[in-house]
Amino acid sequence: MEELDRFQPNKLQKCNKPHSAVMGWQEWVAGAEKVFQISNMSRQKRVIMAVIIFGSFIYIVLTQAVHILGGAPGEPVHPEIRKFCSSASRKNVNIEYEDSNLPVIYVVTPTYRRPEMVAELTRLGQTLTMVKRIHWIVAEDSHTCSPPITSLLDRLGLSYTHLASPMPEVYRREKYVPRGVSNRRAALQWVQENGEDTGVLYFLDDDNAIDIRLFNEMRLTQTVSMWPVGLIGEYTVSSPVVKGNQVVGFYDGWPAGRKFQVDMAGFAVNIGYLKKQKKVTMPYIAGHEEDGFLKSLNLNLKDIEVKADGCTNILVWHTRTAKNPSRTLRLAHHQATNIKPLTDNMRKMGMIK
Ligand code: UGA
Ligand code: MN
């Protein structure tokens, strides 16, 4: 009750002091005069002081404004680290097989070091060698370029670019980590700077399996094309809902307030269209990377091109490989057998420590 009484108006009226805000201001000025002895100051000193106070105020306002405007959700505050590893055009191929009139498909695969990495990239890379006019961008979540990836890319003979861009530490500490975003963003920048306008951008994670017929579907994309992805979430599929060959919504077990409820492997973008957009981005927000990216393309549902027989076929799956722990082996008895060079090779591939 005592607490409440203090805030009753009649108690306030009894108080002879003027309104508290005014009083606070007057006291503050009086205090400042006392401390700084403003009335005794020369005119010059007063001007300098006014300039310092006003300057500080402007500085605070401006830095806050930059922070608020520049700090859109999921946008990095610090510069990202991006490293170019290597690049090559297609070799080991019968030139007749390549058709230079076909638009190039830029396939972006983020990856990171773990026991399964080389297995995943070998499977995916060998699938890509069966497809015409592919440029594979392998973007590592790492400060450095992994030698087994370099030699795999060299062996495959595909047209490729190898990049490295580590996830900023601040995101690695989050509860839900935005996986593969720093490296996809690095690839996105590369495509915006080097991709042919007629080409198409496709994000294909390293734990997906793809039917090469999907590349025929996406190759002539004019804006953004979409199709179902198998083995996703609650419904075992994520697909656009199509009526009269138009996308009218999404069938996905995790709506999460997303405008575009799609998986990363469920769409492709025309590069000329991409380059025309003002601020293309992929946010560092786990689960919202696809939606954030597609929103940044200023896309309307009616602009989406429907593929895979009106979104009735599955041509790509989020298979996910079982995770294997990275072991340290004991090899005391095998220094002179094949097991020694075998495990040395496994170590080079990142399969063991
Ligand atoms: C799912 C989606 O398939 C991703 O496209 C999406 O980015 C992610 O959710 C998310 O919402 O954050 P998920 O299967 O959970 O991905 O994650 P992973 O398959 O482990 O990672 C996605 C890609 O990023 C893979 O290509 C993976 O190699 C790469 N990755 C993963 C990194 O580059 N760094 C990591 O630390 C982890
Ligand atoms: Mn995955």
What is the secondary structure topology, with strand pairs?
Blueprint: H1 2-5, H2 9-14, H3 20-36, H4 43-70, E1 83-88, E2 105-111, H5 117-128, E3 134-140, H6 147-156, E4 159-164, H7 169-172, H8 181-194, E5 200-203, E6 209-210, H9 213-218, E7 224-226, E8 229-230, E9 237-243, E10 246-251, E11 267-270, H10 271-276, H11 289-295, E12 304-306, H12 308-311, E13 316-317, H13 339-348
Parallel strand pairs: 2-3, 2-5, 3-4, 7-12
Antiparallel strand pairs: 1-4, 5-11, 6-13, 7-11, 8-9, 9-10
Helix pairs in contact: 5-6
The structure holds uridine-5'-diphosphate-glucuronic acid and manganese (II) ion.
Structural account:
This protein is an alpha/beta fold. Helix content is 36%, strand content 17%. The protein has 13 helices and 13 strands. It has helices at 2-5, 9-14, 20-36, 43-70, 117-128, 147-156, 169-172, 181-194, 213-218, 271-276, 289-295, 308-311, 339-348; strands at 83-88, 105-111, 134-140, 159-164, 200-203, 209-210, 224-226, 229-230, 237-243, 246-251, 267-270, 304-306, 316-317. The strands form three sheets. An eight-stranded mixed sheet has the order 1-4-3-2-5-11-7-12, sandwiched between helices. A three-stranded antiparallel sheet has the order 8-9-10, with no helix packed on it. The chain has a two-stranded antiparallel ribbon with strand order 6-13. Helix 5 runs parallel beside helix 6 (147-156). The radius of gyration is 29 Å and the shape is globular. The termini are far apart. The model is unreliable at 1-22 (pLDDT under 50). The protein binds uridine-5'-diphosphate-glucuronic acid (UGA) and manganese (II) ion.
